[in-house]
Write a structure and sequence with these properties.
The chain is mainly beta. It has one domain (about 1-60, about 70-95): Ubiquitin-like (UB roll), CATH 3.10.20. It has one helix at about 90-95, and strands spanning about 1-10, 15-20, 30-35, 45-55, 75-85. The protein has a five-stranded mixed beta sheet, with no helix packed on it. The radius of gyration is 18 Å and the shape is elongated. The chain starts with a strand and ends in a 10-residue tail after the last helix.
């Protein structure tokens, strides 16, 4: 199943970037997602905040008669994620993640 990830730096802002993946299922709200890139030391970490399901249905009405089987399909699945910092996050990800502690903060 193709799943598009929208990666948001902060709540309510526009996505920082998007990535498409072929996955066996869809991450659920609260799941931790770790993305590795070949040649990059460390990884990027995100927390799933919501999932959007775009569905297509060939029927015109909201329901069908008993015995009829008209099945729709998922046209797109989009997962919104917030930045997170994990133990193996890359230094670049730690610098750009809004949730990361800032030098001198505290």
């Amino acid at each position: 199943m193709k799943v598009q990830f929208l990666l948001f730096p902060d709540e309510g802002e526009e996505p920082d970037h998007t990535l498409m993946f072929e996955l066996p299922g869809v991450p659920q709200v609260g799941d931790c997602v770790t993305i590795s890139h070949p040649g990059q030391e460390g990884c990027t970490n995100f927390i799933v905040r919501r999932t959007h399901w775009d569905l297509d249905h060939p029927g015109l009405g909201p329901s069908h008669r008993a015995g009829e089987s008209v099945v729709g399909t998922a046209s797109a699945v989009t997962v919104e994620c917030e930045f997170a910092v994990g133990p193996y996050s890359s230094e670049e990800h730690k610098r750009t993640a809004p949730c990361a502690p800032r030098p001198g903060a505290g």
